[in-house]
Amino acid sequence: MSWISGMIGGGIGAMIAGPFGAVIGAAIGSTMGAQKNSGGSRIGYSEAERKQALFFTAAFSMVGKLAKADGRVCENEIEAIQQVCRQTLGLDDQTRQYAINVFTQAKDSADSFDTYAREFGKLFQQDQQMCTFMMSFLFQVAMADGTLHPSEEQMLLSARQSFRLHDSVYRSLHERFVGAGKTSAGLSEHFEILGVSEDAETAAIKKAYRKKAAEFHPDKIEGKGLPPEFIAFANDKLAELNASYEAVMKARS
User: Which alpha helices (H) appear in 74-201, and where do they start and end?
Assistant: First the structure.
């Protein structure tokens, strides 16, 4: 049984407090439709399952607010969300339906984007990898129509603050997804991505690189509670890390 099937069938929404618990409960109800859970709620969830449910729900809750940043949700924005679900995340029918239900519940809720971002920050700010993955996802969705609108950028900046993301991480993501008119990352930014100072010894750079690369191994990422559908973002981060390491080592040689 997949994590999403277990969540939908087990009533995990009732076990989570706050705005995400409310969204989960409503979205599960819509996903199940007229079906009844005759088997009752499963007792007990692993911490990884809880994190997966929270991360996935937070992602599409914030996406719902992003799509409504200009006051309404357009057809091309809905299609962009569907495209992200199908192509970027490769969601199956059940998971995609749950994602759309979360999106719909959140976009029309009284809670703001800032509320969802702050709640996610409270839950995950101690794990900057998870926050980086979430910000990557938000950037990708915001740029699905090819343009980062001022209201969307304001929301992304609010998320950066709530997630306690380092400015260099935000700039790196902004450059990757928005890109137009930007120059390629400078050497100083490559050092920031590796997490070392520009005067670090070569041995220290290699050690930092190996440590960070190990952190983005798919098994380790999934074990931290990232839904399997988001592992692609870990691979994306690893590619960025590799590029920075190659740039730094080339400059050192």
Answer: 75-83, 93-107, 113-124, 128-142, 150-163, 167-177, 187-194
